[in-house]
Amino acid sequence: MATRSVRIIVVLSLVAAIALGGAPAGAAPKAAACDLVTTGELGAALGSTFGPGEQYVAGTGVTCGFEATGPVRGATVRVARGKQAKVAMTKSLKALRETLRSVDSDPPKKVAGLGDKAYYSLDEFLDEGSVEVLDGKTFVQVTAILSPGADPGLVSEQVLTGLARQALDRA
């Protein structure tokens, strides 16, 4: 009888964990958007001082916005998982292509060796660089916004790809 009671409790606990979105004991929790890169990593990569991130939901996925002082004035990290990941990648690329075309900037460029699909873009009108990555059922986007007159090299493909790789590793 005691064994049956233990089984019932275990099953009910697992059902409750799944219903509440939790993971069973021993499973690694999924990192929040603001935990995918640290302010120190952003500062080192982008040459600016970043404040703590603020998480919000807008569109597909969850975004963490970081305000900064220096040549880069801000950055965002967005993550979408599961079925939302592919939707986020598709919508992001479509919006990027349209925006970049409208301001006569180069279209997103494929990035090799990062996830299943990855793209880098530099919006010269808005002074903003971004990398979008789809890896299995995880989408990560890292965007950095330059202060007026700052060197676009600060948001280069190499810099943003490195940050996206760190974020993806933690996602």
Summarize the entry for a quick read:
With 171 residues, the chain is an alpha+beta fold.
List keywords for this structure.
about 170 residues, alpha+beta, Protein Transport Mog1p, Chain A, 2 domains, eight-stranded antiparallel sheet, about 30% strand, single chain, globular
What layout of secondary structure does this protein have?
Elements: H1 2-19, H2 39-46, E1 49-50, E2 54-56, E3 62-69, E4 72-81, H3 83-102, E5 109-110, E6 117-123, E7 128-135, E8 138-146, H4 157-170
Antiparallel strand pairs: 1-3, 2-3, 3-4, 4-8, 5-6, 6-7, 7-8
Architecture overview:
With 171 residues, this protein is of the alpha+beta class. It has two domains: 1-29; 31-170, Protein Transport Mog1p, Chain A (3-Layer(aba) Sandwich), CATH 3.40.1000. The chain has four helices and eight strands. The chain has helices at residues 2-19, 39-46, 83-102, 157-170, and strands at residues 49-50, 54-56, 62-69, 72-81, 109-110, 117-123, 128-135, 138-146. Strands 1, 2, 3, 4, 5, 6, 7 and 8 form an eight-stranded antiparallel β-sheet that branches. β6 (117-123) and β7 form a beta hairpin. The longest helix is centred in the middle third of the chain and has 20 residues, at 83-102. It is globular, with a radius of gyration of 19 Å. Mean pLDDT is 85; it is low at 1-28.
